[in-house]
Amino acid sequence: MNSKDININKNGFREYDARWLYPKDINLEGIKNLGIGLGTQITNRTKKNPRVIVGHDYRSYSEEIKKSLTEGLMLAGCQVEDVGLSLSPMVYFAQFELNADGVAMVTASHNENGWTGVKMGIEKGLTHAPDEMNELKDIVLNQKFKFDKGSYKEIKGFKEIYINNLISKNKIQKKIKAVVACGNGTAGVFAPQILRGIGCEVVELDCNLDFTFPKYNPNPEDLEMLHAIAKAVKDNNADVGFGFDGDGDRVGVIDNKGEEIFSDKIGLLIARNLAPKYKGSKFIVDVKSTGLFAKDKILKENNCETIYWKTGHSHIKRKVNQIKALAGFEKSGHFFFNKPLGYGYDDGINSALQVCHLLNDQNKKMNEIINDLPKTYQTPTMAPFCKDEEKYQVVENLIKQVEELKVKNTKIDNQSITDILTINGVRFSLEDGSWGLIRASSNKPSLVVVTESPTSDERKKKIFDFIDNLLQKTGKIGEYDQKI
After folding, report:
1. pLDDT, tens only, 293-310
2. Which of 51, 258, 262, 483 might form a disulfide with 100, Cβ 3.0–4.6 angstroms?
3. 441 annotated active-site
4. CATH for 3-156, among 3.40.50.300, 3.40.120.10, 3.40.50.2300, 3.30.230.80?
5. 310 burial class (0-12, 13-18, 19+ CB within 10 angstroms)?
6. What residues have CB less than 8 Å from 138, skipping those under 6 apart?
7. Predicted TM-score (pTM) of this structure
8. Which of the residues 62, 86, 109, 441 is marked catalytic?
9. What is the pLDDT of residues 409-432, one digit of tens each?
10. What pLDDT, on a 0 to 100 scale, did the predictor assign at position 444?
């Protein structure tokens, strides 16, 4: 093969998956090489002629990309089993159900049209972490390939197996009216059917597949999508609204009044609902999540423990798996349910089903359930510019400064620092449960700043001012993407 025919931009190898603009940053020969590399990696880590599940989302070009990826996997000796049009969680489920050695899902999730990518994994229920991604990048770019004879098999009717698996385990008694919004993405052929199957009355919003995404990208963090769901909830007098992303591994939730509920608060509500049934469980949340988990009375009464861990779906998924937590919640809307509720991977539809159980189990409306939580004042996620080559060192220095301030008992808004967590940047907590976070972004030249106070909006701002002051003194911080 002439190497000039292969286009594959090295920056497409991200921390947990691979994403490129197609065909600008990767062409079909590049995709084929990615397949040979992934096949080589799976063979190196498992066995000769491994069985690999592949699937694709509904974008116009995803099928041709899957075809090239499959050719590459077969050249590396893989036995490819193709489940067809899929959600990422359906492909993860197939690895368990069919007992395969690896997975490769062709999707760019919620990215705009023009993007493509692959979510992949070897160990069941886990997707690639930074170590595996670096190894894969090295194999692909330096062509450290192993060749062998592979095979291809189409798995027919797997969609129904996935759908029936979720329906059979999640039937509800109460008639819940749910707006199901899919942004014309792939979740449209799964979510309405599953929610109807468990017993919901479903109002569909943009559930017909249209790969041009005529309204907006299927992304539950997109304000346009959230506003559309809120309107549909109010117009239809619905009990809840669900918004799914392009490949179905995340969900956004709107209450019966049309208000968006931050995913970390949804996580806490689900954890509270599960705690009495699963006493002594562990929950994992990312460091951007509300401090309410740490002090929650219902979790404490049921002897449940919450561990704050590194942000990023790959990190949370691995931690859930490693310590056999019951569930993990990430502020971005990735939720992970372990046995007996799931297999530990992120599935947006399963997450929506857990919210339905919450409504089924409590004789309250969604907004009333939310109001049972102590009120907190929370900033959005703010990202001040910081060069990629400087951001980690800046955070290291800030960790030392915050630790020194604790030793000196320096007060922030008349509160002492009681606790410092440095698992992912620095998250410091104050006497009243208020906290602030500074970490390096994993995918952009920026830092990430979040603050929250259960006491007052004023204190939330004071903590931000304190952090901003530390950041400005470094001389290495640029503009914020948004600021309170």
Report:
1. 999 999 999 999 999 999
2. 51
3. no
4. 3.40.120.10
5. middle
6. 144
7. 0.92
8. 109
9. 999 999 999 999 999 999 999 999
10. 84
